[in-house]
Design goal:
Blueprint (H helix, E strand, L loop, with lengths): L1 H9 L8 H10 L3 H23 L2 H18 L9 H19 L24 H16 L3 H11 L5 H8 L3 H24 L4
Helix pairs in contact: 2-3, 3-4, 3-5, 4-5, 5-7, 5-8, 6-9, 7-9, 8-9
Length: 200
């Protein structure tokens, strides 16, 4: 009995799997329902991310489908099962960049669309102000490079850790921190005059 207690003390506690981990393992084993569950858990976030990058709803819809098609085909290669979302957003970012290259002649800036749920509208009185801020936020995002915008959105909109962003984008941790810092400075410089009323 003493030996058993000593063994139990030395044994590390088992960390329960996250929902994504369990679903990834099952999907890799060929369970289609598990991949469908992963799709349902992440499709809204992936589409929002792509819409923020591409700024066109039709492009975002197509890119979302392509992202999950690639994720399904490449899922067997994912070894870090608890990093499914960063991995998925990394695929989405690549799909978005390819879509932009294919349609380089399109003038994406002519759309007045704004990122979904970037600035909430908590009450009717703030609707007009929120719409104006959303417009300026969209403009601010558009001045960022595509890579920098992707990194910032992963951090601010999707709550990914710097390490997860580094893995998703194939960057060093220092590069991720530097790019996000520079992106925030650019956003601040663009938005501050509109927030303070100090227009040029």
């Amino acid at each position: 009995m003493t030996a058993v207690l000593q063994l139990l003390k030395r044994t590390q506690p088992i960390t329960p799997e996250t929902p994504d981990e369990a679903l990834v393992r099952r999907a890799q084993a060929g369970e289609s329902a598990a991949f469908k569950a992963l799709f349902e858990r992440h499709v809204v976030a992936v589409r929002r991310f792509l819409r923020d990058l591409l700024r066109q709803s039709d492009l975002a819809d197509d890119a979302t489908q392509e992202t999950f098609a690639r994720a399904h085909a490449q899922l067997v290669k994912l070894t870090d099962h608890d990093r499914f979302k960063p991995w998925l957003l990394g695929i989405a970012r690549n799909v978005a960049f390819e879509a932009r290259r294919v349609r380089q002649h399109d003038v994406l800036e002519e759309e007045d669309d704004v990122p979904d749920a970037v600035i909430p509208s908590p009450n009717p009185e703030s609707v007009l102000l929120d719409a104006e801020l959303e417009k300026h936020f969209t403009e601010a995002l558009s001045v960022l490079s595509a890579n920098r915008r992707a990194a910032l959105l992963m951090r601010l909109d999707h709550g990914l850790a710097y390490e997860e962003i580094a893995a998703a984008l194939g960057w060093s941790l220092a590069t991720v921190k530097n790019e996000i810092h520079r992106a925030r400075l650019k956003l601040r410089a663009h938005l501050l005059p509109h927030l303070t009323g100090e227009r040029p």
